[in-house]
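Researcher: Hi, I'm a grad student and pretty new to this. My advisor asked me to get structures for two proteins we've been looking at. I'm not sure of the right format, so I'll just paste the first sequence and hope you can take it from there.
Model: That works fine. Here's the first sequence with its structure tokens right after it:
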Amino acid sequence: MYSNQSPQTAYQQFYNNMPSYPQNNQQVPGKQTMVEKYPLQIWVAARAGMSLTCAADLNVPGEGDTKNSPMELHTGYSVFRMAIASSEKGSVVANIPANDIPYLLNQYQFQRNILNRQAMSKPNTPAYTVPIKERNCKNRTAAEVVQMENGLNILTNARKFFAANLDRYPKNKQMVEAIDEALYLYQSHRLSQTINLPPLYSSPVKPKSTADKNNRRTAYSISISGSSSLSVDWTFEIFNCKAFLRDMGKLKTVDVEHAEDKRTLTFKVTQQEMDLFIYRLQSTLENFERMNFSGQYKIAKKHVKYSREVPV
């Protein structure tokens, strides 16, 4: 899934190969341009056959809004819309409320500082720098894999596979050396421990407001987590399903256990892509609030004046 292409090159190929997109940026009659199709998009990361996008769908409380104060600057429907699209597995979507962004930004700065310090303190040897390209190792380094649950067996089996194919794949030698070093350090209790951070952001499974003809709703959850791996730094995971709402007294929750059409997609981004994502979230939110502050303040003052004039 992950290629050596730059995000710009990969995205241009992704853009050119989409059936509804004009080729070579030339508009085709009856076809929508990218700007027309995704006018609210603020960020994208793309690989061959996959993309992760973020669109800003921000909304201020209107003058007749009785649920939200004008000075809160956001309604409950003010969100950043996330989507992972795969040419093979379809797409999944999720919302991050605008009011969750300050928390996400603070957590990101906190975790990024920890991961940076950890990366700088690690020894610059194969066990800590060479990604192990084996399915169960998930492109982590040998030092990371050995600390996973059942990591010792995973590494031992991976070493057997790489060692048996050294003649056909000379690059396997580098991974064998990395595994040998990690196993030695682990057994001699000299392995630098990896800090396992909680998810940067994680939402419970939430229902969308509209239901289908069977009264089922599309529900979603999203999580963003960091990794100390040198190859891929951040993972986005979005879950979608169709489910009924379960009545829990005053609360209604999504009945995930009996849900249908369950689908989970993940997308990994580099540190550079993640920095741009965070920058776009912050700048978009700040500019939106700055742009609307004056108008919302006038609405608030109008309500204050009206409440003083109307007898209680």
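Researcher: Oh nice, that was easy. Here's the second one.
Model: And its structure:
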Amino acid sequence: MNGAPLVVALVGTDHHPFDRLVSWMDDAARRRPNVRFVVQHGTTRAPSVAEGRAFLGHDDLQDLLRRADVVVCHGGPGTITDAREAGHRPLCVPRDPAFGEHVDGHQLRFARTVGDAGVVKVVAQAAELATELDLRLTSRTRTGEVESATVARDAARAALAAELDELLRVRPLRRVRLRRAS
């Protein structure tokens, strides 16, 4: 599909399956045969319609992001920052622990924070993703909503710092009296 619009979806490298996003991307590819879909699927099952790549080296990832018309990603700060630095406001589908996609809700919280700051567009449903893909593929403007990668990176760093502060908040330790073995 030389010259076809390119949609790149990134699930990251976490070992938890992210079948929901891969399935959504297969559905999107099935409905848009004139669009090339590349899905980095990690340890999740490979897509059956979209082109699949388990993992991408840094240079390959950067090249795909530069060439992409639309980027869809999980809620990881590194992936979001890479997409922003390539000029995208990614569609973000955070991993949800309720579906076994991660150990806790940190991606949901992080995505909400950077979504509220305009860094990403958070997508929670397959129908919403389809609508957003159509809007972006029709306009084919990747940078229209992107202020600058520096602003995005700073917002993502601030959100990550707040999330880490919450996760690492020191709680008072209880002293435990140990008994000696007799």
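Researcher: Is there anything I should tell my advisor about the second?
Model: You could mention this: The first strand starts at residue 6 and ends at 10.
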